[in-house]
Amino acid sequence: MAERKILHVDLDAFFASVEQLDDPSFKGKPIIVGSSSKRGVVATCSYEARKYGVHSAMSGLIAKKLCPNGIFVKPRMDRYVEISKEVFRILHEVTEHIERVSIDEAYLDVTYSDRSPCIIASWINASVKKRIGITISVGISYNKFLAKLASDWNKPDGIFEILPNDVPNILKPLNITKVHGLGKKTAVRLNSIGIFTISDLLQCDRQTLSYFLGKLRSDEIYNRIRGIDNRPLNLKTSRKSYGRETTFEEDIRSKPIIKEVLLQYLFELAFKLVKTNKSAKTVTIKIKFEDFSQITRSHSLLSYTNNLQILEEAMIHLVDNLTINKKIRLVGISLSNIVDHKNYQLSMFD
Ligand SMILES: [Mg+2]
Fold it and tell me: Is residue 149 located within the same domain as residue 196?
């Protein structure tokens, strides 16, 4: 089998770049797309704002504190979707083998193209700049994990290729949080036994990894840090559900704690809906008890939404109606019945 040629393309500070494109007075200024209100969230911010430590998914209130001169702009999702479509039109001129990850991110498989991946990457970068007026970073490698790592390498407006021979030297010094699929919590646990870099992680045998990551995940990560990632491109765009769950170190039975944990996840899931321009209708919670019995409870809303407050009310309603007479070891929440958000309301940011 021929070695694959995978590109990962990622628009730079996408929403903020569109705002700077449409209003030139915003150029060179710290633009924060989102709201600074109590429940507000930063969707994206310009690189000028990142210097102050502002980043996506941060509370608007904190962003305002870090960057008092930041210019808060209300998201205009319709406009972003419009620009995103133009970008994808350019990508489709390269190949039909495209995995759309989100509104501003995609993988392309150019293995069978007659042009070299570097030429294609430069062409994409130049075309987006010339035809649309914003910048895109492109990573090139032989699998998805490395291509994504490469697109992040010279951001913004960067092109970077990771070649097979460079892999060990590139990977070894990296912090383990750079490993796609290795969560923050796991990273903290690994830090506690002295594992900080991929180089440290390479010393771990499969058994140790499996202890920290679980059997399934550990095989994947074991390969990934050795530059192996055989995941194919997912050419379908729709996802059935978005979900998160967690196992408690200690068994608990307090409803306020469950709500707090689920709200945090809900926040992430709602943010993901907004980023992928989707809405959901059904909220489901899952509870696993100490004796491994399990229950799920669902609530379907009257209409599709990505509004955090509406989703939160549904979650709280579900938790309040639970009878808890055993210790809980796992809680999870998922959003399903997901559709493209056509008549867009930017409620999450209001
Ligand atoms: Mg991006």
Answer: no
